[in-house]
Every structure is written in C-alpha cells, then in structure tokens.
C-alpha cells in the first residue's frame, strides 16, 4: 500500500510543478477589465461545462437576482429521503418496489371485487396495512435520525467574512454560500470545498487530514493559489477581485481543474492542490483563508457519499426459490379448487340447489365462470400460504441479530474503543456460510505497525537484542493490562475535538522495568487512543532500543566528525566503516518524505530545535515505580492546548533521558528539578512528530532518532537533521525521486553540508538495490559487504521482516551537472514525460555503494495463527492476497500458520523478462504445475498412505496476471483448489478483486474478503461478504465493507459463533415459517363446502393468526435460539461446516416441512371433522376449535424445534396463547350483530364450557406432532448424524462426554 | 443507514451507563454492557433429548391417553340414538309420493307418516333432530347471505336490508324480512311423533320447542323489530321470503315469545351448519318422571308435513332421536382416536426403547467424523 501512496504523491508532486510552470506562463500583465467582462459573457453559453464563482462580498447587498452565485447549491445538507408531505407517497412508492408487497396489496384489493371477495375488504387490508406501516415507521425513524444529524452538521460554526462588519463572523455551516470567504483555524473541519487563498504557514502551505474522506491518516499538503503566494501581509478579502472558473461539481476527489481570472486579466491555473475538501481537518496550520467553490451537496465529499449497500444473502436467495414454489403450490391448490367447484356446479345441472346462491343480479352463473371467479377467491383464501409476515419477521430478526453482534463484548476492542460494526444489515446469516476467505496481509493479519527490528551496516549485523526483548515485552504485558488500565481512568483523556493537541506531561524517571511496564500494552492502548489521528505513532513503534554497539559507533563516528570539522580536516579521513554508519543513518533520516510536526504546536513546522534543548527540559519526577498515575501540568498560556496527556511523548523522552546518563558523554544531563509552570515548554516544541506516508518510513526515521540522528525539519529544498555532537545539519535537498512500484526504490539527491559533496541516498527493496550496486571489482571490502548483507537479508526475510536496502552514491559536480541537464529536460518535456523521468531516475540510481539494510517487523496481530487455524478447521479456505513481495509474504504466511513447513509449496513465478510472452507460452509453463498436484497424491500414497499430501500455492502478481487470463483461469483454479493454502503476492488491487470474482463465480462458493486498506476496497466490494479492519489505514476499507472489525482475530467469533447462530436461527425460522403457513386447513374444507371458497375459520383469526397469534414465539426463537453454545462453537470449529453445506436449510428440508405441514393439516382438520361429524355444530363453532388446536400444534412444533429455552421463550409462548384467548373472548363478546358472516358472538365462551373442545385440543397436537417428534428423537438418540438438522446437537453431546 | 443508527443507539445507552459509573469527565466508552441478555447468556434450559428423557414422554402419553379413550368410548356407546330417513327416494318409503309431487307452489301440504320401532327405551331426555345430507349450508355465498342487523331488530335494516342478502333482498319492491338465502331456504317440514300403544292408539308425544337455540342467540342476537307487541305491525311494509308460505310473524302464532325473528326453529336454522351432512335440534322430549323412560321401547309413528324439497340436489332428510352425555351426542370417534394415539405412543416408546438398548453400547464409542 505504501507504494501506491508514494506513487500517487509522486504524481501530485509532478502535477504541482507543472502547475507552477503554467502559472508562471500566465503572468501576462495588464489586461483590460472590459475584455474580462467580455470573455465572461462569451463564457455564458458554455456554463453547462464550467462553474464560475465570484466573491460574494462584491454582491453583498444584492442577495437575489444579481448574485452570480445564486444558482449554486448552498451549504445546507439534507440527507433525508422524505419531507413531511412527501413521506407517505414516497415511502409507499418505495415499499411497492418489493414484489411481495405488491402481491399482498393486489390480494387485498381483490377483496373489493364483489364476485370474488372472500373476506371483509377492510379487514383484508389490515395485514398489508400493518406491514406497510411497520416498515414505514422504521423508515420514518431512520429518516428522523438522519434529519437530526443533518441539523447538527448544518449548525456547526465557521468563520465567514462579512462585508458589513469587515471581519470574519461566526456563521452556521448551512449559511455558507458559494463565493464566501471563510477563515479556518487549526483542527477545524472544512464546511465546504474551499479554494485555498491564504495560509499562515510561511511556505503558503496548508496541511489537511483526509481521514474522513479516504481514510489516509497522513497529512496532505495543500498549496495556496499561485497568485496569492507572494502576498506578504494577511489576505484581505476586500481586495480580492478574481473570478474563478472551474469544473462542475463531480465526485472525483483527486481532480480539480480551473483557473482564476484576476482583475488585471491574469489567469492562474488551479489544481487539486489548491482545493481543501469538505470534511477534512486543518492540521499544522494556524489559519487559512479560502473561498467556497462547492457547497453542500455539490462538495466532493457529499458526492462521494453513497448509502449503504443492500445485498441479498444466500439463504434469502434460497428462500425466494421456495417462496416461488409456494406460489406454485398456491396456484395448483387454487386451480384444483376451481376445477372442483366447476364440477360441483356442473353436477347439479340446471336445477340450482337452494344453497347455491345466485349472483346479486339474480342471474345464473355458468359453472365455468363460477370456477374462474372461485380461482380468484381461492387466491385470497389461501393467501397465508405465501408468508406475508415472513419478510417482515426476517427483517426484525436480522435487526436483532445485528444488535446482538454489536453488543458482543468479545468483539469489542478496548485499545481503539471500537466494536464490530455491521454495515450491511441483511447478510448476517451469510457469515455462517462462508467457504473462502480472502485476506489482505498488511494491516489485516499484521498490525501494520512497522517496528524497526534490526539492521546491518557495512556488512556488520546489529541484532538489537534489547529491541527484540522490548517488542516481546509488549506481548507479555498483556497480562498486566487490567492492572494498568485500572489507572488509566485517572488520566485526563483527550478531548475529541482537539485531537491533535496534547498537554504537557511531567515526566517521571523510573527504572527500566517500570518504564517497560508503562510501555506495555495498556500504555500502548492509551497512547493509541490519544493519538488516534496521527498515524504510526504508538510508543511501540517509536521507542526503539538502540543496539549499544552501534550506538557507540555512531557516537564515536560523530564525535570524530565533530572533531574533524572543528579542525577543518577533510571528512574522507574518517574510517570507511564509521563513515558508512553515519551515512546509513543520514540516509535513514533524509531519504523519505516524512513531514515533521510538533504535537504541541501544530500550527508551526519545527524550524529550530536542538536535542540539547529538548533534553535540558526533560522534567524528571521521582516516583515509586508501582505508581502509574501521571502528574499533568496545565499550561495556561497556550491558546490551542488543553488538559491532555501524551504518554507517547512521555515515554520517548524518558527513553532519551534514560539512555544518556550512563554514556557519560559530554551532553549528558543531570536531573533537572521538577518544573510545573510549563514555561520551559513554551520555548520548546516538546516531541517531534513524524507524519509519514507509509509506516515503514516512519519506523526508519524513528529508528534513526534512537541513534540521535533525528529529522527535525523538512522544507521543500532543505532537510534539517540533528546529529549527536554535530548538532543541526542542513542538507540542501536537490531532488527527490519518489517511490514508485516499478523502481521499488526512492532516492534523494542532497548536498552534504560537511563534505559539500553531492550525494544520492537510495532506499529500496533489496531486489531493486542489489542489482544496482557498483560492480564488485571496485574493492574487496565492497564485495564482502554486499555478500554479507545479502546473507543478512536472507536471514531477515526468513524471520519475516520487511527488508530495505540503503545505498548511497557520490556524484561529482560534472556528473551531477550532466544528469541534471537530462533530468531538467525530462521534467520539462511535453510528451512522454513520465517515461523520461523514469529513465532519468534509472540513470541516477546506478553504481550505488551499499551501506546496509534494515529489517522492519510488521508484527502479526494477536491471535492470528490461532484464528487461521480454527478457521481452517472450520473448513474455510484461506487465501492471502497481498501487495507485498514474495519472500515477506511467504514468511508471514509461515508465521501465521497459513503455510505449514510440512506442506509442499508450489511457487508460480513468471520470468520477469517475459513481459511480452503470450499467454500461450505461459500455458506450457504452467502445464507441469497443473499435472503435478493431480499426480502427487497417488505417488505419495505409496509412502504415506494415510496422510494426504498438502500443498501450498504461492503465486506472484505477474504470474497471476497470466493465470487470470480467460484461457487459464480454470486451470489456475484447479491447481489452487487442490492446494491447502494460496498466497498471492505482489498483486494489485484489481487483481485481488479479480481473484475473488473468479473464485466466487467459477466455484460458486461463498466468499469473504477481509482487508484494511484502500487497496482492498475492490476486493471487499466483490466478495459476498466484505469485512474491513478498522485499523491503521483509516476508513476506506471500512466504508466499503459489510462488517467492520477492529481486529482480525474477531473474525473467528464473528464467523464461527455469530455466523453459525445467525445462519441456523434464520434458516430454522424460515423453514418454520414455510411450515406454519403451509398448514392450510381451509383447503381440506373445500371438499366439504362444494369448493366454494368457504372458510370455517373466522376471517379475523385467519388474518391475524400469522400476524399476531403465532408471530412472537418464532421471533424470539429466531433471535435467541442457540443450537450450540458459543464456547463449543469456538472449541469445535468443524461445526461451522453445518452452515457451509447449508445443512440447516436444504431444499429437501423445505419439502419435508411441506409434507409435514400437509400431514399436520390433515390431522388438524380431520380429527375435529370426525369428532363433529353429523352433529349440530355450526360453521364457526366448529372452526374455532380448529383454529385453537392449530395454534397449539404450531406452538408445540416450535417447541420441538427450539433448542434453548430461556424465560423469553416461555413467556412468548404463554403470551401467544393468552393473546389468542383474550382476543377471541373479547372478540366474541363484543358485538352480537357485527363481523358477518361468522357472527362469533359467545362462541368461544360456549366452547370453553365444552369438554369436547379440551379433548380435541389435547389429542390433535399430539397426533399431529408425533411423527416429527419421533423422527427428531430417532435422529438424536440413535441415528448417527444423518438427519442433518440434529447433527450439531449430536456432536455437541458427544463432545461433552 | 441502519448500522449507523445502531451505533447511535448504543451510544445513547452508554451515555446513561457512563454517567452512572463515573463523573462528567469520563469519556463515554462504546464498550457493550456485560449483561446476560446482551451477551446472549440468558439462563436457558437446553433439553438435550436423550433416551432417558424421551422415552418416558411416550409412555406417559400412552398411559394417559388410553384410559381417556376408553372412557370416551364407553360414554359414547351409552348414548342411545335412533335415526330414520324420510326423504322418500325409495318407492317403498311412505314419503315417496310427497317427494315426487313436490312443488313450492302447492297450497295443500303433503303429509306422510313413517312408522318405526324403538328396540330399547330412551331413559333420559331425548333430543329430536332433523338431519340433512348433501345440503351445503356452508357454501361461501350462502353463509354470507343474511343481515344480522335486520335479525337483531334494527328498523333501518328491516326496511333496507344489507346488500349481502342479494338476490333475496327485495321482493316486488318490498324488502324481504328476513332477507337472504339462509332465511329463504328455512327448513319447513313439520315433524310430529306418536307413540303407538300395544292396542294401536296414537299418543302424541309432547315435543318442547323452547330451549333448542343458543340462549345468546335467542336473547341477544335475534330480536323482533319494534318490540314484540304487534309483529304484524312491526313487519308492515316487508315481504316474506320467496320460498316461504307464511310471513315471519306467523311462524308460531301461538306463542309471541317464539314468533318472528326469535322463533327458535328459525334461529337454529340461521346458525349455518359446518358440514354438508348435519343435524339440527328440532324438539326436546323431556323426561316426565324418574320411573318411566322418556321413550319406552315400542312402536312409534313419525308424521311429517313434507314441505322441504331435497331430491333436486340429491339431499336426504332424516329424523334423529338421541340422548346426550357430557360430551355431546353419540360419536365413538374421539374415544377411538385417543385409544389409537395412546397405543401408538406406547408402541413407539417400546420400539425406541429396544433401539436404544441396541445402540446404547455403540454410543459409547462415537464415530463422528471430524
């Protein structure tokens, strides 16, 4: 990822220079105002292409017609979907997009047709209205929440220039209009897209943090518009008279083009470097002034704001098929009834029986017409077969599931105070059905906290054992976590708004042990909370314990250099190994694009600092080592600061402090008496903060600082480095050749202040640097260094460290001049500039002298190997797709147990020189691999008959490009499938998503993609379930994801426990729903009422049965039921297979349930039928017991299906029963003449006095459920796991034995 | 959107939580509450079904159901019932002629007498039913064809019956009272029962026609319009149903409490039967003294005024005499059902017990594939 970022930054840089050049060209003085106006008029017809922005203050009095900006959207945002008036029609319109709703409304409306109607039309509307209104209320509530948050945002304050008052006045965000001048202060959030016109920064820069937009936490530099660059005094809006023409609002964050026309007629080009985007935060800049270009919904941030995504889960897709089957069953039943009715009519011939009522007009209906009408009637009568409440119930259950996942303590990360976020609400059950996991490596498996681990300089390895121990300490300290966090409550926390500031902390001196304790994980946690908005600055990354040997050498070297400088001796007299060391650290310090800032004074860049003064101001407080409370010092004379603590600063300074005294160097410092007034700090900038584009860079800079080679300032043309003894040295920065992924290295060209030589420092991947080393004939020592370094590099790579080589090259003045000429040509070239610059860089980076190499550790996140192991056991295929290089990736893969040493690794690497090769040529290359896995099991079976040979596949990006070719993808998949693990290195974001897409589409499996960075977004979006890690690299992956996790290891519980539960709950609930609705007693009745569509069940019961009486228990079970406990699911990951194979919801289960429902409906119908046969029972007195016993049967059925009984289950069943009887009794006592045709008056009351009623209610459920109960028990107690639905329980029972 | 709303919801929850715990300075943590409900650790009963818990259930059900079934069966068998079909399909049937020559228009009623013999005396109160077969009183359109407001004595509904009554809503411009197909097809046979002495004299058996309808029907649901004083006046301006021979206020001129809409025969008919073969209570023969049976064994004669045609739709008419028990009329089905289900349960219990014993030894070494 870092490569991508650096590369883009490189482009920015180039564009910027281009911009400057263009701006200079445009500096033609003196153009008449009239011509400007004329041009403007000319532009008018073209206005659909561009946007013209005038300053509002020029038109302050003309609010209406004359204001040229009046047509642009104002800054008021409205993300709500509805208004008070539009809510009802719009919401209904949206709801009718769902087919089911249309269907149910259609059925309800059918009731209004007199010939067809089965129920009272008003009553038939009730369920649909109920369901529509539930959804509407939910939507309304959501919309209200959006409205509230809109209000909040709209009423944020910002400073807008007012012409009347001639100063900046506070305004609400919503009052900001295009063309307003706004003043922004440090740490303020931008209210709109603003063109930067002035900055308090001496370099006319403004730093912004774009974390909310793209998630990148490093600071971005923005440049004041060129023509305002040279203003010495403050920008005065009244003097502004330009007109800005720019493009129409669009959603491209990385694009902004336009120009500003000054009154003088001068035109200056505008670039994206001039634009501050809404939502970003101003950092490190005290004040900036700009003019609003896009406001409100036209800002790029808002245009990029997409709503949540809706995915359809696998289970739901399956369910929809069965809903479709239900429709077919319904139609068949209706058709059957219609034909039956036709025949029944026909048998009477012309003699109409007295009970066959004529149509209202008194006309006779022919049997055929009658049958057609009846068909429609039956659709109404049988509508319950299509579970109307299923969709609503599923939604409710999913919301509950999401709620529970949110609430899970195990998925809460204290360190970042974040918990799992479900961003997609309707695919919770997909979590239980995953088959393939595609994981990013950096930041997902690893912490993406680059820690300098060890280095080799001039062929000598410095193992940094103490550093290794320190790193180990962080892990061990976990146990003491509780201890430390209990104290953390006393710490003043960072105010959420002023995130970048931290207060002075009085430091304490402490023993190494206690230092380590505070540097433990709890400390790291606190620190990371405090410095959330600054990337890569946890103490773990910053506190590098220097290798004593190397530190000595550095000191020795620099003191010698100091001595030599003092005596004006040439530096070349320095022993070459010492020179290499100092060069090595200088390279580490300056060969990067790190921006230096100070946490205490974010408004100013650090210009003048010295380690000496830092150290002289170290405040030492003697305290017991057990106490971890910090004394904080309030600084009262700082505007921007507040009561905050910065343990990270503390620990680093303590470190410096600690190291110094025993060294006995001339700059050692005695204890300074405690100072509480904070005055000393005013002069100081406290600790320096490094804003790096990639964590690697920051790690190296911090590492160098541990050796007292600190980067203290960076200007566009100068880097200031603080060296021990030598003090501050300024390197003239001649060129920066930024990192790109093809060169895999970056270089800086500087003029060395001591030697005055032009020196190139290059830093890059070992493979890239080693080829460029000066041919070894230059000296024996060099050869030795190279070979030794190579050895150590291999060693580092085997340790899973990220390696970087550092090299330098000294250019003679002539060489440099020669190169510079070419380079300038390249820079100014019009065509093919990119390539020319690339070539130019290549020319420079040759014949390098190797200085050394570094090993940076990207530590695995906690519990990654365990998580991978258990996910593996759960039957999940894990593929790692990384942009990292192969060696590192393989090593990390070994470290996280993805690859096993026992496995045979297939490595697919296309030759780097075969770029032009066709896929066909590759095909032949690939063929052996294809055969290999298929043949190997047979060959290995001779020796080890019982162990299946396990394969791991490693493929790099270039090879992947071939493998993803249409003609080869099947073969690639075949190979990959036979491998236990697949590792794709050096893959681009697009390749990642292509791999996911390929596997998903070709293998028809459920895929999960997990990643943390912007390069994973496409993969996350393609997968069935996308998981984002809300970690170091900001929010972009999270924004694209369906679920956002704080840590990789939470994936285990999310999938194995919640996924399993969600899936099994929902699957069982859906099956149950189908069953419940399929108990269509009325169908059987048609045989006894001449297929007339008559119902013995009161229409009220019929309509509210599913909606009310039997709704709650299944919702409770669907939400709370646990087939297996969380502990067991985690202990036995193989239980996850249940969901992968969709064992809870197989098609046959649907049909089994249908058959069961068929049987149960037979029982529920015919037992009362025979019990009341040839009696004087009336229609509804007979139907009411049937309703009652059907309810009992359904509830008991649910009871059999329920695996865990909490008080809520009992309560819900009791409630359902009570509700039914209460409603029935009230309903039957309420109105003697209403509710035609059932006239239920006093029916239930009479039934309750009838012993027959109770007898029926006992025997029918028993008879109906006997088969299911028996089968369930057979499966459970005797049958060995072949009844899928009880397999899990069986295994668990066995597991506990 | 929903996800974000959940975030907010939790934050709300935590606001309160945080303010309970700490002071104002405590930054609210998003940490979820550790409650049993939220962590899904509610105490739960997890019935792990084993042979030990399952088998007793089968046996218990069996042991409870079988005695109940036997009890029901016995009490059903104790009920005496006598049924006689008087439709007149068969040429030998006394009512054959009446059935053949039926026409709705005939003014002179056709009377036929069916003799029968009771082999056993009926000891307790005897309920006299008329039974109809193949009569679909539960037909969808038929069931709806009534106006409950009219039957409840509502004046406006009387004059302007509900549309549901169509096409039996108005007749010759006048509203029909009672309207609708149900009322129109009122069963209008008259049954009379005579006991034939050993010497051949016919003794009229007193048939009680009160108390055959539901109390709530008679007193709440059905009411005559405008009080019960003068029904002729009350029903002024209405027309009798087309199939009726006399208007509703002449249903029982002898007893004003049983006339008009509150005529019990009418009420019983209006309670539409559930199934196409049904019976409706017609009269009650009350036991006179404890010593003599209500209906002693012997010869009887059923005299029918044959008004009601059923042959056109292949229907049957029966007269049923039955005593009742606590569980209603004679119906052995429920008893048999209980016995059957109970036996099946018992049987399954035994089978499962055997299977369980057979597999139990194997279960100790489970071979679950991992």
TrEMBL record, chain A:
It is found in: Endoplasmic reticulum membrane; Membrane. Residues 1038-1271 form the P-type ATPase C-terminal domain. PROSITE patterns: ATPASE_E1_E2. It is a multi-pass membrane protein. One of its GO terms (molecular function) is glycosylceramide flippase activity. Residues 625-653 have a biased composition (Low complexity). The active site is at 440 (4-aspartylphosphate intermediate). It is an enzyme of class 7 (translocase). InterPro entries: ATPase_P-typ_cyto_dom_N, ATPase_P-typ_P_site, ATPase_P-typ_TM_dom_sf, ATPase_P-typ_transduc_dom_A_sf, HAD-like_sf, HAD_sf, P-type_ATPase_IV, P-type_ATPase_N. Residues 655-666 have a biased composition (Basic and acidic residues). Mg(2+) binds at residues 440, 442, 1012, 1016. Its cofactor is Mg(2+). Residues 65-122 form the P-type ATPase N-terminal domain. Its EC number is 7.6.2.1. One of its GO terms (biological process) is phospholipid translocation. Residues 27-50, 478-527, 625-671 are annotated as: Disordered. Its main location: endoplasmic reticulum. GO terms for cellular component: endoplasmic reticulum membrane; phospholipid-translocating ATPase complex; plasma membrane. ATP binds at residues 440-442, 697, 739, 763, 802, 882-884, 986, 992, 1015-1016. It comes from the Eukaryota. Residues 498-512 have a biased composition (Polar residues). PANTHER family: PHOSPHOLIPID-TRANSPORTING ATPASE VA, PROBABLE PHOSPHOLIPID-TRANSPORTING ATPASE. NCBIfam families: ATPase-Plipid (TIGR01652), ATPase_P-type (TIGR01494). This is Phospholipid-transporting ATPase.
Automatic annotation (TrEMBL), chain B:
It is a multi-pass membrane protein. InterPro entries: CDC50/LEM3_fam. It comes from the Eukaryota. Pfam families: CDC50. GO terms for cellular component: apical plasma membrane; endoplasmic reticulum; Golgi apparatus; transport vesicle membrane. Residues 1-25, 148-170 are annotated as: Disordered. Residues 150-159 have a biased composition (Polar residues). It is found in: Apical cell membrane; Cytoplasmic vesicle, Secretory vesicle membrane; Golgi apparatus; Membrane. Keywords: Cell membrane, Cytoplasmic vesicle, Disulfide bond, Glycoprotein, Golgi apparatus, Lipid transport, Membrane, Transmembrane, Transmembrane helix, Transport. The chain crosses the membrane at residues 48-74, 333-355. GO terms for biological process: phospholipid translocation. Belongs to the CDC50/LEM3 family. This is Cell cycle control protein. It comes from Sander lucioperca (Pike-perch). The gene is tmem30aa.
